[in-house]
Amino acid sequence: MALIVQKYGGTSVGSLDRIRNVANRIKRLRDEGNQVVAVVSAMGGVTDKLIAMANDLTSEPAERELDVLLSTGEQQSIALVVMALHELGVDAVSVTGRQAGIVTTGSHTRGKIEAIDPSLMKQYISEGKVVICAGFQGIREDGMIHTLGRGGSDLSAIAVAAAIKADTCQILTDVDGVYTCDPRVVKDARKMPEVSYDEMLEMASSGTKVMQSRSVEFAKKYGVIFEVRSSLNDNPGTIVTEEHDNMESVVIRGVSIERSQARLTITGIPDEPGMSASILTALADAEINIDMIISNIAHDGLARHSVTMHSNDLGRAQAALKPILAKLGDSAGVETEAGIAKLSCVGIGMRSHSGVAAKMFEALGEAGINIGIITTSEIKIAVTVDETDIEDAARVVHAAFDLDKAPTAQ
Ligand code: ADP
Ligand code: ASP
Ligand code: MG
């Protein structure tokens, strides 16, 4: 008998038939003698619809109210999953974030999990009940309803698995596992048997939507090994775990893409200490998530800084920089470019192999794809390209590194 935490994403509970499928899968695990806690997302599209309604009513919905509104999506689906389980004769009970003891911290709509008091869930488990827990939500220390950012049910599931010391944590979704690239974009992408936390984290934070990046960070911190697999079949998925010697030996593990990016360049900045800090502080104070940062060497005493961000944040970023630009004087200006996307190659093998960037840029060059900004980390090389080129870019880079083929032992 094992204690299993599962997470079912939006598509996996996207219709009543899918909810019946989830109930059947959970019943099967129960019949095999396991204890099950399932964390579920809102039915697919519900969170987006709630956000659209809020935006129709007001251009600036209060974030406290957004949390109250968005958390209702998961509350619907937990009740429906429990009803489907009851229909199959399974003793099951739903818990909201508050009832699950999920205590959060941080600004509204961007909650972080601080602690979990799983006593009620444990009591239900000991009574032989299946527990269906609302993903994406918790209660802030001041008692406010709080959501965990888009895709946040992944984080709920990993944190619950850590809190109740589950034997197994499975993230069930609409793909069979983590692929070398989004299989909807690169048809010959290959499902990987295993990925290290560090690679999964870099992939998730550079656009690989299958896992929310903060959930991977949490899993690494608390040593939660998890498996990404399909809610629609029984194929083995991808295990995400600490890096080890028997992992497939590759230089590049995967390719990530992130659309809807924008560049903002501040020109004519006096080349003096403290300038970069004041620009980045203004953006940070406006809670704008900056991704790439490039600073050009000053020419004639004037420098340029470019940053990238989600294109939705461009307007707010420009507004946040206005007071600084006014102080910088006539030399300063702002240029913006929307309609760009980011392509990243990720792999721990890069630590010990050179030539990865050259190979990536050569593949893009041969395909006639122009590169904008370039950044690197120890295990990642990322470039911006025109958004219209991103799918071709992903395919040519994926092919250049032979990612469709299983690596041969080295
Ligand atoms: P859920 O609703 O279950 O949370 P998501 O839509 O958040 O599911 O994530 C699953 C999607 O992630 C897949 O449908 C797939 O298109 C996308 N995806 C992007 N990159 C990858 C990748 N490298 N491997 C697997 N899926 C990926
Ligand atoms: N329902 C939330 C979202 O759509 C959380 C999740 O699905 O993980 O982002
Ligand atoms: Mg998701």
Automatic annotation (TrEMBL):
> Which EC class is this protein assigned?
transferase
- Give the reaction(s) catalysed: L-aspartate + ATP = 4-phospho-L-aspartate + ADP
Any one GO molecular-function label of the UniProt entry: aspartate kinase activity
Q: Name one Pfam family in it.
A: ACT
CDD domains annotated for this entry?
AAK_AKii-LysC-BS, ACT_AKii-LysC-BS-like_1, ACT_AKii-LysC-BS-like_2
The EC number of this protein is 2.7.2.4
Q: Where is the ACT domain?
A: 264-339, 345-410
**Keywords from the named record:** Amino-acid biosynthesis, ATP-binding, Kinase, Lysine biosynthesis, Nucleotide-binding, Transferase
What family is reported? Belongs to the aspartokinase family.
Quote the protein name from its UniProt record: Aspartokinase
